[in-house]
Amino acid sequence: MIDIRRILSDTEAIKKALMDRNQKNIPLEAILNDERALSSHRKIWESLREKRNRLAEDIGKKKRLGEDSSSLMEESRLVNAEISRIELDLSKMEAGVREQLLLIPNIPHASVPVGPDEHSNKEVHRSGVPRTFSFEPLPHWDIGTRLGILDFDRAAVLSGSRFSVLTGDGARLERALVAFMMDEHAGFQKKRRSGKPYTEVSIPFLVRPEMMEGTGQFPKFREESFLIPDDNLVLIPTAEVPVTNLNRDSILDESDLPVKYVASSTCFRREAGAAGKDTRGLIRQHQFLKVELVWITRPESSYDDLEELTGDAETVLEKLGLPYRRIVLCTGDLGFSSAKTYDLEVWMPSQGVYREISSCSNFEDFQARRAAIRYRPKEGGKPRLVHTMNGSGVAVGRTIAAILENFQDEDGSVIVPEPLRAYMGGQERLSPPERKR
């Protein structure tokens, strides 16, 4: 959530930033008018409280002198009634302003390229060379089906479209990837700039709606979520939601920052706006596994920390030998809560394109203001809002898809990346059923 004081003091810059994000219909002037009315009511409320205090002193004096104070007491009663009425108005007005602020996206960082859509995203780094095949590479859904490790038909019977069943080597590969990624991130404290370790956490997959508001999914994207209204719970779209909210309503010590978490979780998304997109395969599913990295850090270091967090995600792809690139998203393609985002895109041979496998974002104090996450500066003074960041480290289903496509052989088998073999009993290759006999 944006600080209303920032909107008041720099209205034109905020308007331009929202235009750069293609947000042309946010009624900033109406919000500012409501905030000014709220400020005016606060002044009246403060004035009445001062008057009540003066009346209380005068009443006390008269009583001590044995004088009649009935008229002052009646005036005090009327002032108290007016204060109560204004407090009700203030509560409604504050809630109204907050509801409007919750619908305003974050303001892009100055380093974010300006552009209307994904075509204006900028590539900043590329790693690995896409393999040249001597045969026509198959898409991962065909490879997985022929290997007998992916079953979309049975998943459709169980749950409908955009679900999958992994069996045998497919399930083992998924488990191996989660273990490998978690082990990689847990070891990063030995070699990273921040010097702080990741704390591994296991979190609930169901959260209260307030947690979704804290990280920016609600109220804007409520229709994208799987809701359980009878229990007032929501299935998480990403571990970012419960992990970030672990420090909700907290004041941390500056010496504890950055706080770094890593979690693996099942994620659930309705994909309501994705009709007709990626209808086959593992790229866009209602349910999927993901390893998530979450940082809570100091404002002064957050952009250096974003580079480190993104590097942690990149290390997974590099060790697996998957060609990828890093792009910085332009203003028109930024997520709602993000001030700056790097996407990591992995090469998919069957499509001849790079596809997103990780998104690493700095939210600055946008989430912290919603969730009331602060820290106490070393030098003292008032607590300050932290900056929060997160990134996929990385999406497991999309990694399976990338492994199947990049390491496929003409005979239908798939080479297991070397780092995963220890997690799969030394297995070096996924082979079709007829070759296992």
From TrEMBL:
<keyword id="KW-0547">Nucleotide-binding</keyword>
<dbReference type="InterPro" id="IPR015866">
    <property type="entry name" value="Ser-tRNA-synth_1_N"/>
</dbReference>
<feature type="binding site">
    <location>
        <begin position="356"/>
        <end position="359"/>
    </location>
    <ligand>
        <name>ATP</name>
    </ligand>
</feature>
<dbReference type="Pfam" id="PF00587">
    <property type="entry name" value="tRNA-synt_2b"/>
</dbReference>
<dbReference type="GO" id="GO:0004828">
    <property type="term" value="F:serine-tRNA ligase activity"/>
</dbReference>
<comment type="subunit">
    <text>Homodimer. The tRNA molecule binds across the dimer.</text>
</comment>
<dbReference type="GO" id="GO:0005737">
    <property type="term" value="C:cytoplasm"/>
</dbReference>
<dbReference type="InterPro" id="IPR033729">
    <property type="entry name" value="SerRS_core"/>
</dbReference>
<protein>
    <recommendedName>
        <fullName>Serine--tRNA ligase</fullName>
        <ecNumber>6.1.1.11</ecNumber>
    </recommendedName>
</protein>
<dbReference type="InterPro" id="IPR010978">
    <property type="entry name" value="tRNA-bd_arm"/>
</dbReference>
<dbReference type="GO" id="GO:0016260">
    <property type="term" value="P:selenocysteine biosynthetic process"/>
</dbReference>
<keyword id="KW-0648">Protein biosynthesis</keyword>
<feature type="binding site">
    <location>
        <position position="392"/>
    </location>
    <ligand>
        <name>L-serine</name>
    </ligand>
</feature>
<keyword id="KW-0963">Cytoplasm</keyword>
<dbReference type="GO" id="GO:0006434">
    <property type="term" value="P:seryl-tRNA aminoacylation"/>
</dbReference>
<dbReference type="Pfam" id="PF02403">
    <property type="entry name" value="Seryl_tRNA_N"/>
</dbReference>
<feature type="domain" description="Aminoacyl-transfer RNA synthetases class-II family profile">
    <location>
        <begin position="191"/>
        <end position="417"/>
    </location>
</feature>
<feature type="binding site">
    <location>
        <position position="238"/>
    </location>
    <ligand>
        <name>L-serine</name>
    </ligand>
</feature>
<feature type="binding site">
    <location>
        <begin position="238"/>
        <end position="240"/>
    </location>
    <ligand>
        <name>L-serine</name>
    </ligand>
</feature>
<feature type="binding site">
    <location>
        <position position="390"/>
    </location>
    <ligand>
        <name>L-serine</name>
    </ligand>
</feature>
<dbReference type="InterPro" id="IPR006195">
    <property type="entry name" value="aa-tRNA-synth_II"/>
</dbReference>
<keyword id="KW-0067">ATP-binding</keyword>
<feature type="binding site">
    <location>
        <position position="292"/>
    </location>
    <ligand>
        <name>L-serine</name>
    </ligand>
</feature>
<comment type="similarity">
    <text>Belongs to the class-II aminoacyl-tRNA synthetase family. Type-1 seryl-tRNA synthetase subfamily.</text>
</comment>
<dbReference type="InterPro" id="IPR002317">
    <property type="entry name" value="Ser-tRNA-ligase_type_1"/>
</dbReference>
<dbReference type="InterPro" id="IPR002314">
    <property type="entry name" value="aa-tRNA-synt_IIb"/>
</dbReference>
<dbReference type="GO" id="GO:0005524">
    <property type="term" value="F:ATP binding"/>
</dbReference>
<dbReference type="InterPro" id="IPR045864">
    <property type="entry name" value="aa-tRNA-synth_II/BPL/LPL"/>
</dbReference>
<keyword id="KW-0030">Aminoacyl-tRNA synthetase</keyword>
<feature type="binding site">
    <location>
        <begin position="269"/>
        <end position="271"/>
    </location>
    <ligand>
        <name>ATP</name>
    </ligand>
</feature>
<dbReference type="InterPro" id="IPR042103">
    <property type="entry name" value="SerRS_1_N_sf"/>
</dbReference>
<feature type="binding site">
    <location>
        <position position="269"/>
    </location>
    <ligand>
        <name>L-serine</name>
    </ligand>
</feature>
<keyword id="KW-0436">Ligase</keyword>
<comment type="pathway">
    <text>Aminoacyl-tRNA biosynthesis; selenocysteinyl-tRNA(Sec) biosynthesis; L-seryl-tRNA(Sec) from L-serine and tRNA(Sec): step 1/1.</text>
</comment>
<comment type="function">
    <text>Catalyzes the attachment of serine to tRNA(Ser). Is also able to aminoacylate tRNA(Sec) with serine, to form the misacylated tRNA L-seryl-tRNA(Sec), which will be further converted into selenocysteinyl-tRNA(Sec).</text>
</comment>
